[in-house]
Amino acid sequence: MILNGALINGAAVLAGGLAGSALKKGIPERLDRTLTQGLGLCVVFVGICGALKGEQVIIAILSMVIGTLFGELINIDRQLTRAGYCLQSRLIRGSSDSTFAESFVSCTIFVCVGAMAIVGSLQSGLSGNHEILYAKSLIDFVSTMVMAAALGPGAALASVPVLLYEAALTLSAGAVSAFLTPPVVNEMTCVGSLIIMAIGFNMLKITDIKVANFLLAPFLPVLLCHFF
How far apart are CA 206 and CA 122, in angstroms? Predict the structure, then answer.
């Protein structure tokens, strides 16, 4: 089945989020805080590694500037946060957990932004080979479990956006593959990794960045790479 990779990845994120949420209930507050800080450092490291794949600084700068302008106009962060609170009110009635929306937004960005999601989905759509998405599923299971343990159950619901995102890429692989050349994917990974770094800084309480308002930026190298 052509969508097997996306379905497995979505299920892995859901399972990891549920497992992490169960673990969180038994974690003392002091350990919870330290765990969040440790995970924040790991997220920053992942972002740095991905950002180094970029080769043209001008593309990263323009992508972030243009993407942020449109993201702020649309206010994507507010829309995603509102969706997180809406899901919280429907699924966990009477809960006042203020980190639910934060964990949903942060985990959604973490599992959706990156080369494996793009390349794996294209591979699934073009050849029916799901190896990359299966490998990503294992990574996402562990990452989501730790993120849910640190931030809360909202991380589990990142399974829905990642499923829809990868399914859309898989189904449209034939049409978009010509545009997503290796240099373009590298620049998209670079810009996306800058956003992942911002998630890490927020988790460390160094910044309070509206990360979701950068979400359009990783897609802009598809256009900008034709001019530089």
Answer: 36
